């Protein structure tokens, strides 16, 4: 009979109780050659600071063209436990996080950014919350390194709307930055086949006990963000189609309002038709409304088409990512 497991899936067999928990540190990386030395140094700092745990470093090279994977492999030293997962092309950060979750060995995993904006103390806070019994721990920025602007406002608005208009009310309104998940949550994520995914939304959807930590985000020491506007728009679409019917409900409300407005204008047109003042102005209003209604219908079809297409994409069950190569530092 198998030995029982504790709340985090760790083997409770007395012969294994002295085993230190293994924590996987997952870094999605796309053209982050400048950050390689910093990532390795941060990994070693974490190992030294939190010696009661074992750590493995999982770097998912998301189709980099600047030799990121090669530099990591060359920089890994004896004693480092580094796994480099090279994907066949750029699949996006959420696919890369999924690849890390599905190819790590940890009892828990923490996602970290290759731009090194998380303080060392945040790792300890994550681990404290995990040891307290949480299977999911959200890392939220109490202070953002970037100046507040339109992008920051849009990101915050997106998180608030997703929190209140979806099936994942545990998704933080503040907008999550990093996250810790237990082995049990990782196994659930492995079983989910979504092709177009917000992996943080998927984690929120799983339920389980969820905690939070807050940290001050550090300025990015190298390069710039690879998070393009196109990728942001795709994430918004993925999130709402996957977790919300709100766009369809909004269209229904808009259609009802347009119906009432149309009825009022028809009555107005009938009244105007029997008055001497009837003329071109009334026809212009009607023509404008016809064009507006046609445009709204096309917009509605576009929204419905997005839901249908993504449902078909999931039904095709294509892989979320394709691994080109996996290299472990122990193979050197």
From TrEMBL:
Keywords: Membrane, Transmembrane, Transmembrane helix. GO terms for cellular component: plasma membrane. InterPro entries: Glyco_trans_2-like, Glycosyltransferase_2, Nucleotide-diphossugar_trans. It holds the Pfam family Glycos_transf_2. Gene3D superfamilies: Spore Coat Polysaccharide Biosynthesis Protein SpsA, Chain A (3.90.550.10). It comes from the Bacteria. Residues 24-152 form the Glycosyltransferase 2-like domain. The chain crosses the membrane at residues 250-274, 280-301. The keyword Transmembrane applies. Belongs to the glycosyltransferase 2 family. This is Glycosyltransferase family 2 protein. It comes from Arthrobacter cavernae.
């Amino acid at each position: 009979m198998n030995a029982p497991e504790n709340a985090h899936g760790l083997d409770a067999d007395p012969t294994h109780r002295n085993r230190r928990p293994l924590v996987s540190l997952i870094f999605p990386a796309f053209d982050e050659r400048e950050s390689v030395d910093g990532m390795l140094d941060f990994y070693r700092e974490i190992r030294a600071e939190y010696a009661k745990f074992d750590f493995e470093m999982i770097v998912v090279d998301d189709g980099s063209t600047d030799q990121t994977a090669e530099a990591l492999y060359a920089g890994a030293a004896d004693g480092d436990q580094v796994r480099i997962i090279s994907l066949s092309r750029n699949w996006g950060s959420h696919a890369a996080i999924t690849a890390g979750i599905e190819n790590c060995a940890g009892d828990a995993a923490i996602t970290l950014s290759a731009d090194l904006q998380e303080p060392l103390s945040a790792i300890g806070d994550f681990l404290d919350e995990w040891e307290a019994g949480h299977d999911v721990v959200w890392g939220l920025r109490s202070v953002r390194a970037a100046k507040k602007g339109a992008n920051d406002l849009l990101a915050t608005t997106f998180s608030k709307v997703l929190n209140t208009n979806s099936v994942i009310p545990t998704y933080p309104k503040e907008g999550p930055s990093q996250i810790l998940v237990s082995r049990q949550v990782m196994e659930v994520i492995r079983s989910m086949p979504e092709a177009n995914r917000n992996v943080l939304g998927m984690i929120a959807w799983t339920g389980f006990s969820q905690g939070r930590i807050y940290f001050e985000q550090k300025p990015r020491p190298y390069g710039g963000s690879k998070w393009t506007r196109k990728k942001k728009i795709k994430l918004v679409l993925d999130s709402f189609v996957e977790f919300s019917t709100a766009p369809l409900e909004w269209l229904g409300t808009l259609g009802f309002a347009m119906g009432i407005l149309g009825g009022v204008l028809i009555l107005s047109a009938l009244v105007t038709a029997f008055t001497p003042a009837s003329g071109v102005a009334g026809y212009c209003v009607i023509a404008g409304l016809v064009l507006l209604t046609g445009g709204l219908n096309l917009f509605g079809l576009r929204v419905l088409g997005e839901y249908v297409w993504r449902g078909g994409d999931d039904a095709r069950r294509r892989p979320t990512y394709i691994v080109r190569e996996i290299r472990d530092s122990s193979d050197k």
